[in-house]
Design a protein that fits this description.
This protein has a single domain, classed as Vaccinia Virus protein VP39 (Rossmann fold), CATH 3.40.50. The protein has ten helices and six strands. Strand 2, helix 7 and strand 3 form a beta-alpha-beta unit. Helix 5 crosses helix 6 and helix 8 packs across helix 10. The protein is globular and about 50 Å long. The model has no long low-confidence stretch (mean pLDDT 94).
């Protein structure tokens, strides 16, 4: 198990007005809309979620980095838990021809608006109850998803990650190291239920028996 910062550079490249997020809009209403995981969350106004999440190829270098780090090859089975529109999963399939990809998400809208070539490999499912046999996948990843679970469901989901994986796993979640990062996270988030420092996340990983790699997103 090791900490790997695959996603930090992408997160830091985004400009955010944290204070405006809680002064210009009714944050509670926005969070309620976002947690429907529908059109408003993915492609509606920014204060309801992504503000338009469209394929533009930006994830290809990241997919190649992940594929290289985990030595993914044709014939390997890869699962993305909380894949959304599955853009990263699509890029992995392009970076490693012959890779067997699979994604799960609880958003009907997200799955319906994935790349056409990847749709046959996507499933509507919850991270707490994955519809797969033990040790099905060579590599399991989950990016910016598990912090959306309450702690009791988080434990179940982490155990599910470990259960369906043969070998390698990677989980990335939102976290904070300072009071400023904590405030920024609370201002910006719409769907988080688990707010923990890196040490607390590592405690959860140990408690759940999660043995894979991990990373964090910080709102600096």
């Amino acid at each position: 198990m090791q900490e790997i910062d695959f996603f930090g550079p992408y997160n830091r490249a985004t400009q955010r007005d944290y204070v405006q997020r809680v002064t210009a809009f009714n944050k509670a209403d926005c969070a309620h809309v976002a947690k429907q995981w529908g059109q408003a969350y993915w492609d509606g106004p920014r204060h309801h979620g992504y503000g338009g999440y469209y394929y533009d190829g930006r994830w290809r270098p990241l997919a190649e980095q992940i594929a290289t780090h985990y030595a993914l090859k044709a014939g390997d089975n890869v699962l993305d838990i909380g894949c959304g529109k599955a853009f990263l999963l699509y890029e992995l399939s392009q970076a490693v021809p012959g890779l067997n990809v699979c994604g799960v998400d609880l958003s009907h809208y997200g799955l319906e608006h994935a790349q056409e070539s990847i749709k046959p490999f996507l499933h509507l499912a919850n991270a707490t109850e994955l519809p797969f046999e033990d040790a099905t996948f060579d590599f399991v990843l989950s990016v910016n998803v598990l912090h959306n679970l309450h702690n009791y469901d988080l434990m179940t989901a982490l155990k599910e990650v470990q259960r369906v994986s043969r070998d390698q796993q990677y989980v990335c979640v939102e976290s904070y190291r300072t009071e400023q990062e904590k405030a920024n996270l609370l201002y910006w988030q719409l769907t988080c239920e688990s707010f923990y420092t890196p040490d607390e996340w590592r405690w959860f990983y140990d408690l759940a028996g999660y043995q894979g790699d991990y990373g964090f997103i910080f709102f600096e």
